[in-house]
């Protein structure tokens, strides 16, 4: 029986319907809590769905929003400000996905539950909510990150009563969520297991590995043995442990054993599903996590209905409980769920916050203004210039660095190149590329490039990043254009040691103005610094798998090997003499 109670948050009485049973088409019951005003009238509903547990989301009633680096920041409290939702006269319905929390069923794999698409469950959940006497039949969705991805997955199923969605901080390309440029990222492990700033999925013994379900023991042993033979995996205790004891961390096991892109990630990829969405959709993302900006833009381009794109300011992690986008979200839903013409549809469809100038640039597409891609060449003595190097490698000898694995050192070697100070404000907006001609003495390495805006006093702001595992250097030539490389990541091709290759890193979308007196600084390494200005704003597990072998790198940047950054300039540096020096 449903437990109904009342909560007073100091401003209002909130009626709470605890442990509602929501039937799915196969008879499985999902558990949900509904929060509403105490006057018992029908209202529009905002639905939040995830495997993080509805009881965890209820902490939004008692915990003030926490920002990184607060130790109380919990990346899984993502369903929104319950009190604010109720005060705006909506019913806030928070549900546990199949196999999680108090819901029935088994959760198999990532975004695939018991052979049932989570989109189908979301469809049934939304339609059930719309039929309840406390809902007026108008349904939207709420929540960031996993909750945001679920909004896209749900909308792609086209439930009739889902009238609009508002997605903040969603993850869309599932391969790129976990493997940046082919380099494994540990943050999804934190969300699933509960580590380093995340409570994790609310699973007990009902989460199942799809790999364990689908493959024979013999085939699985072959896959596991291959992964364990990877020197990078061998050097990371958590990966060795999970591969040997997969039932402890089954969802993470699935990701570890699928290091290449393909059907595993594509069949539930929201970027592809977005072509089925024709309801009004608002997509919001903040700067500083470029891989998420990249797939947010790709999803936006695939949407069919009324749509908005909002790229906000750094830093990259919003509060938990998340509150930053609530004002805009309620304006969106006021128009689409309540029918109030508040002017929001008269505003530009694309709004981009530009770092540096701190202005909003608006338009109808990304980027709002077509850029001209300008090359900034790596030169001797750590310089970046718009002029290429005229000398050959005999005279312009390559830069180099040796990186020992983190099993034996805490020192991260970084090569740095810098422009002179800009003599005019220079705006850049779009994607970019880093062309790195390199020779290594192993079959693989990582290339990690980070681009900074450095002020005269030394303060710096991360602008964008690029990642590429050397064995993933292949390009899809048909999808690649200047300043916009595309790597399929469908196979790994070992590097022949001692051979110079061109590695083209995709620099994730960004928007920044480099002010007069500032410098653009590029840093190249094969592992991230363990601590720095940017990392402190991310959860502790927001780290990439380092190379597990010692590697020597030679970076060529001479007349024949024109290593360079190709950047999207929207206010041209023109003939600036200062950049030629």
TrEMBL record:
InterPro entries: AB_hydrolase_fold (IPR029058), CocE/Ser_esterase (IPR005674), Galactose-bd-like_sf (IPR008979), Xaa-Pro-like_dom (IPR000383), Xaa-Pro_dipept_C (IPR013736), Xaa-Pro_dipeptidyl-ppase/CocE (IPR050585). Keywords: Hydrolase. SUPFAM superfamilies: alpha/beta-Hydrolases, Galactose-binding domain-like. Pfam families: Peptidase_S15 (PF02129), PepX_C (PF08530). Residues 330-566 form the Xaa-Pro dipeptidyl-peptidase C-terminal domain. One of its GO terms (molecular function) is dipeptidyl-peptidase activity. SMART domains: PepX_C. NCBIfam families: CocE_NonD. This is Xaa-Pro dipeptidyl-peptidase C-terminal domain-containing protein.
């Amino acid at each position: 029986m449903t437990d109904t109670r009342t909560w007073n948050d100091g401003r209002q009485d909130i009626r709470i319907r605890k442990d509602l049973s929501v039937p799915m088409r196969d008879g499985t019951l999902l558990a949900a809590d509904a929060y509403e005003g105490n006057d018992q009238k029908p209202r529009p509903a905002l639905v939040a769905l995830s495997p993080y547990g509805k009881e965890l989301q209820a902490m939004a009633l008692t915990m003030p929003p926490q920002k990184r680096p607060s130790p109380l920041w919990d990346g899984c409290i993502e369903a929104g400000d319950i009190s604010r939702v109720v005060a705006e006269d909506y019913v806030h319905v928070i549900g546990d996905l199949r196999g999680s929390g108090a819901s029935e069923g088994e959760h198999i794999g990532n975004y695939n539950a018991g052979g049932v698409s989570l989109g189908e469950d979301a469809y049934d959940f939304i339609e059930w909510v719309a039929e309840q006497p406390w809902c007026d039949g108008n349904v939207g969705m709420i929540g960031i990150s996993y909750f945001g991805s679920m909004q896209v997955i749900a909308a792609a199923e086209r439930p009739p009563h889902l009238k609009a969605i508002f997605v903040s901080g969603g993850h869309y390309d599932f391969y790129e969520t976990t493997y940046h440029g082919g380099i494994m990222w540990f943050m999804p492990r934190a969300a699933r297991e509960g580590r380093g700033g995340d409570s994790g999925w609310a699973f007990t013994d009902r989460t199942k590995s799809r790999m364990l379900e689908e493959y024979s023991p013999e085939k699985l042993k072959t896959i596991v043995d291959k992964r364990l033979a990877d020197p990078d995996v061998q050097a990371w205790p958590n990966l060795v442990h999970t591969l040997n004891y997969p039932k402890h961390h089954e969802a993470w096991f699935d990701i570890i054993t699928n290091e290449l892109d393909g059907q595993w990630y594509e069949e539930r990829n929201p970027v592809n599903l977005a072509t089925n969405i024709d309801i009004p959709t608002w997509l919001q993302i903040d700067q500083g996590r470029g891989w998420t900006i990249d797939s947010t833009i790709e999803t936006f381009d695939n949407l069919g209905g009324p749509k908005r794109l909002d790229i906000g300011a750094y830093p990259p992690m919003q509060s938990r409980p998340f509150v930053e986008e609530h004002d805009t979200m309620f304006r969106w839903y006021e128009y689409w769920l309540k029918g109030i013409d508040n002017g929001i549809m008269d505003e530009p469809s694309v709004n981009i916050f530009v770092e540096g100038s701190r202005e909003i640039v608006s338009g109808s597409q990304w980027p709002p203004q077509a850029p001209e891609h300008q090359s900034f060449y790596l030169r001797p003595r750590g310089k970046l210039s718009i002029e290429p190097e005229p000398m050959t490698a005999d005279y312009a000898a390559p830069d180099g660095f040796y990186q020992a694995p983190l099993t034996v050192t805490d020192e991260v070697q970084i090569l740095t190149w810098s422009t002179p100070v800009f003599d005019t404000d220079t705006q850049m907006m779009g994607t970019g590329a880093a062309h790195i001609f390199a020779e290594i003495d192993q079959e693989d390495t990582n290339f990690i490039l980070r681009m900074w805006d450095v002020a005269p006093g030394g303060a710096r702001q991360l602008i964008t990043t690029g990642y590429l595992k050397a064995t993933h250097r292949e390009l899809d030539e048909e999808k690649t254009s200047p300043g916009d490389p595309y790597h399929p990541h469908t196979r790994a091709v070992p590097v022949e040691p001692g051979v110079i290759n061109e590695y083209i890193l995709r620099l994730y979308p960004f928007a920044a103005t480099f002010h007069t007196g500032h410098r653009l600084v590029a840093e190249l390494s094969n592992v991230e610094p363990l601590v720095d200005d940017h990392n402190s704003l991310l959860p502790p597990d927001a780290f990439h798998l380092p190379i597990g072998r010692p590697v020597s790198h030679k970076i060529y940047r001479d007349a024949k090997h024109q290593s360079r950054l190709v950047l999207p300039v929207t206010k041209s540096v023109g003939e600036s003499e200062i950049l030629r020096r």
